[in-house]
Amino acid sequence: MAEEKPWNAARLIPTSGINGAEEQERRATSALLAVMSSVKEYGRAITSKMGAPAGAMETYIEVPFLLGDKKVFPDGLIRVKRGSKSWTALLEVKTGGNELQREQLENYLDVAREHKFDALLTISNEIPPSAGTHPTAVDKRKLKSVSIHHLSWTEVLAAAVMQKEFRGVADPDQAWILGELIRYLEHPKSGAVEFTDMGPSWVPVRDAVATGTLRKSDKDAAQIAGRFDALLRYGTLKLGQRLGTDVTQVLSKAEVATPALRIAALTDMLVSEGKMHGAIRIPNTVSPLTLTVDIRAAQVTGSFNVSAPGDGRPTTRINWLLRQLKDAPDTVRIEAFAARQRGGNAELLRTVRENPAVLIADPSKEIKSFTVTYLGKMGANRLSGRSGFIDSVIDGMFTSYDLIGQQLKDWAAAPPRLRK
User: Fold this and answer.
1) How far is 214 from 269, CA to CA, in rounded Å?
2) What letter would DSSP give residue 251?
3) Is the pLDDT score of 238 beyond 90?
4) pTM here?
């Protein structure tokens, strides 16, 4: 008998039957913790960043605790044992658009302190504006003996894909289990949504930049600067997931120590130039990828810098670069920088291919480096989608690496030849 409609395949972690946010959070928590304890490589990948030792892992959901005269129920508990040592963390999970609540987190920090637990881990779709910070501000006095850590669902999924596809899982059955978690988290019903909204401040900031009326004192400007930095961090996770390697945002020591400095610098650039940018480090590329959005020009650019060959005429050095960009589109921009020359000469690749000499301002000066830039169109809408700002930035990141970053190699001098 022919099937009238396709049947649903049986899954280890089904998405059917999820009704409401509470059920969504309970199922996501239980699925994640069960896989962490059964797939040791993945459990280790998640907990090692929080200072947990390598050892046998136990996981529990909805563990009740007394706090004063009331009961509290953290979504989960993780315990790692190694010999006589034990490391324990409480877990709080949010899915969909639900945000972490300060009072709830502070209650769990009090529970952790009373029971001498080591950490509180939170998981939600919130991405902090800067690395190493938590999306919810809590009383710092409660962090004297307990540390707090946060993972976005994007990070949880990226770690699972990285472990299964690139780093490997020793046991084939456990690899299949991890694959089931990946399939579940990628399903829209799981609540592990991606970065989809620049927030309500996007449209007024975009319009104020276009009219030149944005001020440093506007709170919306700082909010968009923070959202842009969070978008960059989201993009690094997605790119790293595709490449199978750790892709990270480039920050100065001062910005790592004081994340507010980065947001302040981005806000100043947004107000004065109508631009925001950030740098991304991809292993084994010639330089970090510098991603810039120009709101006034409605443009997204991605640039890589590469040193010119150490010998040869200027045209020889330019042709060396052109050979590496043989498959790049004509619309890529090349800028050549010569020694003792202020600024560089820039032309589109189509022009340079026809006449490499257009990049030479002074034949007597040695070309030292090049900047190769992808030029893309910026989306205007706040939500993700075909004409959205988010998709245009992520597309600019991926396309810049595809067309330029993975093609460029540093020049190396030829080894000396034996004389006959």
Assistant:
1) 11
2) -
3) yes
4) 0.87
